[in-house]
Write a structure and sequence with these properties.
By secondary structure, this protein is mostly beta strands. The protein has two helices and 15 strands.
Length: 321
Amino acid sequence: GHRSLFLSDFGNNNLFLKLNTRIWKFNYQNLFMELHNAYQRGGDKLIGKKYAVMHHLDINITKWLNVGLFEGVVFGRENKFDFAYLNPVIFYRSVEQQNGSQDNALVGLDLKANFAKHFQVYGQLMLDEFKLSEMRANRGWWGNKYGVQVGAKYIDAFTIKNLDLQLEYNRVRPFTYSHRDSVANYTHYNQPLAHPLMANFQEIIGIARYQPAPKWMVQAKAIYYKQGRDTGAVSFGSNIFLPSRPPYRVSDYGFSTGSGWQTNVMYASLLVSYELRQNLFLELFGVARRDETKTAPIQSNNSTIVSFGVRWNMQRREFDF
């Protein structure tokens, strides 16, 4: 999808070792990563390190259906790697429990299905922490931490060649990706590893891409999301850099997606790109953004930006949130 609830390309670069194994219809990936803690401005010092291990196993069940399982653990060991996580074939969750369940583990599944030559549906279900009895009780327990993504693509829409449409919905519960130990939160270098909004939000994304000529590309994007933001040092589950334990978390119950300082954001952008030479692009970009709070203190901010750039042999960075 446009976003990822597991591991996105939004965050900063990191040192990693990647192993990829293909057997029959199975594809198995392992990632061993060295990350950096959140940096608080202060005296000069080396930024502390933490680590993450992840794997993703997917299978092509049919020519049109792919299903995958993923799992990841983020942990800190005072600048040393825990070699118990080096085994590439076991479930990391079991290792995390053997270590006393002190690390930040999540699991999930994803799928994508192509049909009717022009359509694709996809989705992700990510579980950070989950207790069925609390779900049934419906009391807004803080520890039910999960995220859901559902999306669809329409290729060559309405029989117009090179017109592609995409619609995506993302929802992440409060306190997802956070941890009682702030070192083990799901971040790297002051940025989230997954969704740029971190947690406690609902989001709808619409994208239209059109290539009217071989060297021209036009992309329009609209994003609307509702988020319950934190206030000061009090956590409502949005800022995953804050520990998920008291006194930052003020209660155990009463948390729903969007609880806290309720904020609605509308984002719209238009990109026109021309390939002057191979991998050399001239780009005109415009964005309009409105940020409005619905609970006190009431605030409203409007931003409009128009920019022109030259891009050569590099991927375009997106800051669409």
